[in-house]
Amino acid sequence: MEKILAVLLFAVVALPVPAKQDTLKYRIGLTDKTETTYSLHRPEEFLSGKAIARRARQGLAIDSTDLPVCDAYVRRIRDKGVKIIVKGKWDNFVTVSCNDTAKIDCIAALPFVRSVEKVWKAPGQDKRNKELKRDSIVSNSYKLENPYGLAYMQLYPSHGDRLHKAGYRGEGMTIAIMDAGFHNADRIAAFDSARVVGVKDFVGDSPSIYVESDHGMKVLSCMGANWPHAMTGSAPEASYWLFRTEDEYSEHLVEQDYWAAAIEYADSVGVDVVNTSLGYFSFDDKSKDYRLRDLDGEYALMSRQASRVAGKGMVLLCSAGNSGQGSWKKITPPGDARNVLTVGAIAADGAIAAFSSVGNSADGRVKPDVVAVGVSTQVMGTDGQPATANGTSFATPVMCGMVACLWQARPELTARQIITLVRQSGDRADFPDNVYGYGVPDLWRAYQTQGDIPESTD
Q: What's the mean pLDDT in 356-376?
């Protein structure tokens, strides 16, 4: 009996103790990259061939911001006993998780550390108890006379259908979508022919991006759906990267760290056009809330990153936000960024959506840049059937797909020239305002525009 008891006691003692989960995350800003092992003379070590060719075609230099974060610095930070979450090379930072503030103080004292900021605190259990399960798919013979289905009404105002008819449907263009999740996008028939070349979860806490939020799936459907006579998106033949950067269970600055890592990854794999139907101005930690004077394209990490995108040879489209009827009213970062296309929402008849956030930026730049249909926008539902949704979140991909088709049609243009061309084709280009921006672009007219096209210089 005593022997049996001893064995049982040993078994209890030998059981592994579950590791305590970190409940805090910090952004560690770094001073330099002087100890890097990478070289600007060997860009193939950190950029794909497509990314290098895209820069070369547009006459864009590969510079120090493209060099990965210094591995030696990362090792010294990790050696303090923290977990590396993401790294951002353009802004030169590392995001870590750690519950021990003494370790963070030690990291702050390192000679190559310029700043430390807490960017996440774990939400309560009540915010993380969502059961992740798939919605059921419904099969029926949904069919309309128009080959676009009801989606025709969102392409017509900017004449995206004419680009399609001319053969420009996104072939050869790669679009990245930064979002919260893509529920059932791998099971819905409208995406059977969608060219999804890769997926990546930068939040890193989900078994699959396809069981998370349906927001990204609806965004994808505005561009990539290809179900003739039911729903055809604005770029049905483009290729797509699907990135999860939004954590729906809390609202903290760290989501911008995820986004920053994702936009750099998009650049590195050779993406051409990026859609982000995300925006931030209010957080769980109210001390981090933005002020209207912060909308200068530089204050928020996402805005700084977004302002660099055109300089890397990509075109970024951002949703303006849905705060037009609230106390905030203004665009939300990264929609305040420079050299991007920030998209507001209109109805199919051209009337501005009351919820569409307004500009201008804090430093007086025209925002939003353009508008597209974001009222009763045709999207796919999680059951695999066409549905409707409201928001600048959906106006943005409607426009994004058409911009990709325009660039397919005008491959000789740079990212900054495409941005200028889209703005100049707006029906309010001569007198832009802070509600419609440059207005509704006529992308068929943009395609036919001849002569020198200046690069955007926001």
A: 98
